[in-house]
UniProtKB/TrEMBL annotation:
Keywords: Membrane, Transmembrane, Transmembrane helix. It comes from Nicotiana tabacum. Residues 1-22 are annotated as: Disordered. This is Uncharacterized protein LOC107780336. InterPro entries: IPNS-like_sf.
């Protein structure tokens, strides 16, 4: 038995040469195999590493109805519900100077959300107009009002152009082609250095504070007068990006999303204020909420009401005629 086991065991391996002299411990074939085995594979990094930023459209190109500008606007509005407008003709430096020199503006309206002041531009409020005239004098007030009305006029013009391009893209719906009236609200926001340094992080305006109100409108135009971080909240989630005081950010409201049957997305925007932001002056920002009234809808409703009234009137006339004939018949 022992002889059988000892005879079946494999012989020990031959000793490996020491590698001295002309002989090598590893032959050339094994060396090539090892070299190939330890070869580091080539790694390719993704090409697109920058953060998402909405499309930037040159406003004069929209006025000329250039196809490339309109297509990029429609694509960004459909996918994200937001687009950036540059070359709009509003001087952020002049606007900032005007608002800084007229800080009395924020004493007229004591609107506040957290750490920032809010002023609603509404000169149909006679009480506010009288307070403004007393604060700076009638002549100064008229000059200031004229300057701010010019800014409002330009923002309304941008809103109308963007709305028209979006509506006219749906050529199958004739009701998108007529607008009877518009509703406009303009807000001016201010956050001072002390206000911004006393908070961990906040948004201007605070998220959900004006979210529902913004969605009721067709378009919301934001004009930050500082290079800040802007965040868009849409059905795709939160999308932050950097913005400059030369850019108007346009977000779509729920009104356009409903009228397009979901073809275009609604979104809400906010400006981020962070404690590590070094500012020597107040942070200022403008917001315009713009909505439209469709002419065809009103005509349709009016026609519908007239039709029902006519039906009632015809029914009353028929009843009177019937009773008249019945009376004449019974008397005979």
């Amino acid at each position: 038995m022992r002889k059988h086991l000892s005879s079946s065991v494999a012989p020990p391996p031959s000793p490996i040469p020491t590698g001295r002299g002309s002989r090598s411990a590893v032959d050339s074939i094994l060396g090539e195999y090892i070299d190939q085995s330890i070869h580091v594979p080539h790694l390719t990094l993704p090409k697109n590493t920058h953060r998402w930023v909405p499309d930037e459209i040159y406003y004069p190109s929209l006025l000329l109805r250039e196809n490339d500008a309109m297509n990029r606007l429609l694509s960004s509005a459909a996918e994200f519900g937001v687009v950036r407008i540059i070359g709009h003709g509003i001087s952020s430096e002049a606007l900032r100077t005007m608002l800084t020199e007229n800080e009395w503006l924020f004493r007229l309206s004591r609107g506040k959300y957290g750490n920032y002041d809010k002023f609603v531009w509404d000169w149909s409020d006679n009480t506010m107009v009288q307070k403004a005239k007393v604060a700076i004098g009638e002549q100064n007030f008229l000059f200031f009002r004229q300057q701010l009305e010019e800014v409002l006029k330009k923002l309304k013009g941008i809103a109308k152009e963007v709305d028209e391009i979006i509506r006219m893209s749906n050529t199958s719906d004739e009701s998108w082609k007529k607008i009877e009236a518009e509703e406009v609200k303009m807000y001016i926001y201010r956050c001072t250095k002390n206000q911004s340094s006393s908070m961990d992080q906040t948004w201007l305006p605070p998220h959900n504070a004006t979210l529902e109100d913004s969605f009721k409108y067709a378009l919301n135009l934001y004009l930050p007068l500082e290079p800040l971080e802007f965040s868009v909240h849409s059905k795709r989630g939160r999308l932050p990006f950097k913005t400059s005081p030369h850019t108007i950010i346009v977000t779509l409201g729920h009104q356009l999303e409903e009228w397009s049957d979901g073809k275009f997305r609604s979104a809400d925007g906010e400006v981020a204020l962070k404690p590590n932001l070094h500012i020597d002056q107040a942070l200022l920002s403008l917001e315009l909420k713009w909505s439209f009234t469709n002419l065809n809808d009103d005509v349709y409703k009016t026609e519908k009401r007239i039709t029902l009234s006519d039906q009632v009137l015809i029914l009353v006339i028929l009843i009177l005629v019937y009773r008249m004939f019945l009376f004449m018949y019974t008397n005979n």
